[in-house]
Every structure is written in C-alpha cells, then in structure tokens.
User: Which sequence fits this backbone?
C-alpha cells in the first residue's frame, strides 16, 4: 500500500489498467521483434533497422509500465500466460505464413495506431486523482504518435520487395 494520497480503490483501478497495457505492449514488442528477425527482401537492412528502433522503444515501454505499477505498490504481470490473457493487441502466431516486408510494415503501422487508441481509452478510465498515471499515459501517447508518424512517412517510400 502506498501513502501518497491515493485511495486503495484508485490504485486498484489504475494498476489493473496498467497491467492490461503492459500485456499489450509486451505482445506488440514480441510481434515487432519477430518481424525484425524474419523480414526478407531487397530492403532488408532498412526494415530490419527500422523495426529494431520500434521494438527497442517497446522494451522501454514494457519496463516503464511495469515500474509504474511498482511505484503504485502493486505487482506487474510477469508470465507469458498472464500476458496472453490480458492483451488487447493481436499476437502474430507461428502458424501464420510470414507476410512480405511491406505487409509487415503495414501491420506494424496499424498496430501502432491501435495501441495509441487503447492508451487513450485507458487514460479516460484512470481516476482523476492519479495524476502520475495520467501524465505517464499522456507522455506515452505523445511518443507513440511520433513513431506512428514516422512509420506512415516511411511507408510512402518503401516498395514491395
Ligand atoms: Fe536484432
């Protein structure tokens, strides 16, 4: 329990939202990382490096989200099973055929947009007293919107390989 002026109900509500977000970020991280490993084609290096930048940002978001939950005195999800139960982002399964590079990039673009909308929805549900989490999510939206712009801009110059 924290003694920083937040009610127990508030902490429960915020950390449940954050744990769901953690699972979604974890899923997006693994999906982007998987595409980084498996992408092929003429523009391999370009895709491979661009995907690395994005999954690295997601590693940091996973860490920051888990540590925000700890800062509120609760325990972040820590098993694959719990992550899968909680996520809002669709994972990319091993049984699926690997798409072409351009399609991977479009899937990443759509997932980034989806993730931003998910964060927006969580943000609306965070109790008004939890200023730290509200600010945390606003910063997350801003940084992901910048990446979403770059993904869209890059998409224009990429061609199917
Ligand atoms: Fe790598």
Assistant:
């Amino acid at each position: 329990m924290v003694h920083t002026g937040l009610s127990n109900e508030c902490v429960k509500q915020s950390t449940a939202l954050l744990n769901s977000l953690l699972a979604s970020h974890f899923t997006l991280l693994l999906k982007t990382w998987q595409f980084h490993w498996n992408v092929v084609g003429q523009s391999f290096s370009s895709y491979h490096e661009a995907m690395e930048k994005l999954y690295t940002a997601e590693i940091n978001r996973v860490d920051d989200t888990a540590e925000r939950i700890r800062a509120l005195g609760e325990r972040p999800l820590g098993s694959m099973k719990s992550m899968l139960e909680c996520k809002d982002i669709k994972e990319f399964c091993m049984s699926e055929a690997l798409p072409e590079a351009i399609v991977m990039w479009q899937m990443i673009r759509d997932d980034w947009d989806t993730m931003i909308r998910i964060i927006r929805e969580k943000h609306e549900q965070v109790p008004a007293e939890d200023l730290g989490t509200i600010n945390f999510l606003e910063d997350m939206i801003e940084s992901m919107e910048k990446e979403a712009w770059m993904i869209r801009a890059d998409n224009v110059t990429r061609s199917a390989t």
